[in-house]
Design a protein that fits this description.
With 488 residues, the chain is mainly alpha-helical. The chain is 72% helix and 2% strand.
Length: 488
């Protein structure tokens, strides 16, 4: 692992891995959000209703919640190189299905399956953590997350131009299809371009890929508690697709899915116990313990940061349009400033964490996030439009810098579990988006922003339970000896 000065333009192997990784993440978001800027053309081409369009938006995030958990486990077990490569290649298939769809049902199935590619973010978190020391990790993860996340904004800027250039009813199909081809090709480029670890380093794997390991009885029960919102969000999505929501599912299908979720949750409890049952009889040595409380705090913070980003990006054009009586296209351009901040904000959040400490940085950024949304809740049509855009961009800085700070801390909890921890924390971001967008369907824009501000304040209070990463974490080498990995 290279601990020399961080030089983004260096030709060192760790920098090459970083660039390979953020490009892979960028492509996953390009594919995941390739439909969003083309919905008008898709609706016109296939005569879709507004309810069907809303359903596609819901389906796009539905599978990402369990996918991030699954991909996190696969990353820890099989390594980032194989996992990311396979994900990019396989997800090009439903992307092609979406481009070739001729009716709503085909679109819906393809969009649901494409939610899996939204889990790609998790893979790079583990890979980058293998190549950078603790004092550079926040910066590296911030660049990976911020530049990769820009794939959604790139989709909004590039794909409509491709569709309009080709023209006709098939323009959108070519625009979507191109992203699938890029994903397929880059899957092979990534596989042959990276290694899981630096030469001679050990890739530590968890004892089991069935469930996350914990190291105390109290942490076991906290793990079960933290699984509840994940299944709650899936149940909420099921409700939104039911006859009481957008009516994509029949009443019988809805009941079957509820029953399936209950069985799945029971199985999760069972596997968690099977993996961790020894802690009930034999205490884990102190040097091998980690605090799951750290994971729980980061989950809540990512719920408020990335969850609110996904939700606000979805509604901000309409908010500007209705509040200031703007043309929707112009309002969309103004709203894009919110996502555009990712290029600098997220890396900056990671860099500040490296320089001034994880906990302190998170406390400052979470405070700014809560206050930022409180300010946005007060925006009315009487405000200056320029001032409203400045308020949105300022709030966006704290949101995305907060995301960078969260994932500056995630890899420093337990190395061999980094993928699983990143998967759970990442899934909480999607849970936040589902919850916030559901709230928005029942309340005004002002109350919606106040709800986010309040949840961020809860995250701020939970930060008092977080411990600043210090010293080393211990991992066992194949020969039975112990390696200590610095976390400060």
């Amino acid at each position: 692992m290279n601990s020399s000065k961080f030089n983004l333009f260096s030709l060192s192997e760790n920098m090459k891995v970083l660039h390979y990784s953020w490009v892979a993440f960028f492509i996953t978001f390009l594919v995941w959000f390739n439909h969003a800027p083309l919905l008008g053309l898709i609706a016109q081409s296939l005569n879709l209703s507004s309810e069907q369009i809303k359903t596609l938006l819901i389906l796009n995030v539905a599978l990402t919640i369990p996918a991030r958990i699954f991909i996190g486990m696969a990353t820890d077990q099989y390594g980032p190189r194989k996992t990311f490569s396979i994900l990019l290649v396989l997800c090009s298939i439903p992307c092609g299905m979406f481009a070739l769809s001729t009716d709503f049902e085909q679109l819906a199935l393809a969009r649901f399956l494409l939610g899996f590619i939204g889990a790609g973010f998790v893979v790079g978190i583990r890979l980058v953590s293998e190549w950078f020391p603790a004092n550079q990790l926040g910066t590296a993860e911030g660049i990976y997350g911020g530049w990769g996340n820009f794939g959604s904004a790139a989709a909004a800027m590039i794909l409509p131009a491709i569709a309009l250039y080709i023209g006709g009813d098939n323009g959108w199909r070519w625009a979507v299809g191109v992203t699938g081809i890029i994903s397929f090709i880059y899957g092979f480029i990534f596989y042959f371009g990276v290694r899981d670890t630096p030469q001679g380093a050990t890739y530590f794997k968890p004892k089991s890929s069935k469930a996350m390991e914990v190291t105390s009885v109290g942490d076991f029960f906290l793990l079960l508690v933290m699984k509840v919102p994940l299944f709650g969000a899936l149940a909420l999505l099921n409700w939104k697709l039911s006859p009481e929501g957008v009516s994509l599912l029949s009443a019988n299908a809805t009941i079957i899915i509820y029953f399936g979720l209950a069985i799945w949750f029971a199985y999760e409890i069972y596997t968690a116990y099977q993996v961790n049952k020894t802690i009930f009889t034999t205490p884990v040595e102190p040097m091998h313990q980690y605090s799951f409380k750290q994971v729980a705090v980061l989950n809540v913070l990512y719920f408020a940061t990335f969850g609110s980003e996904l939700a606000v990006v979805s509604m901000l054009p309409l908010f500007f349009s209705e509040t200031f009586n703007l043309d929707l296209i112009y309002a969309g351009l103004l709203a894009s400033s919110y996502a555009f901040m990712n290029l600098l904000s997220r890396p900056l959040g990671g860099w500040i964490s490296d320089k001034y400490g994880r906990k302190k940085t998170l406390m400052i950024l979470t405070t700014g996030l809560s206050l930022g949304y409180a300010v946005m809740a007060s925006i009315t049509g009487e405000w200056s439009l320029v001032l409203a855009v400045i308020a949105a961009m300022s709030c966006s800085f704290f949101v995305q810098a907060g995301e960078g700070a969260v994932f500056a801390a995630v890899p420093l909890i337990k190395r061999r579990l980094t993928g699983q921890i990143a998967g759970m924390t990442g899934a909480y971001g999607n849970v936040g988006a589902v919850c916030y967008l559901t709230v928005l369907s029942f309340v005004s824009y002002s109350i919606f922003f106040w709800v986010i501000a309040a949840s961020a304040f809860v995250g701020l209070l939970m930060l008092f339970l977080m411990q600043e990463p210090k010293g080393s974490m211990a991992e066992i080498l194949p020969d039975g000896s112990v390696e200590l990995i610095k976390v400060d």
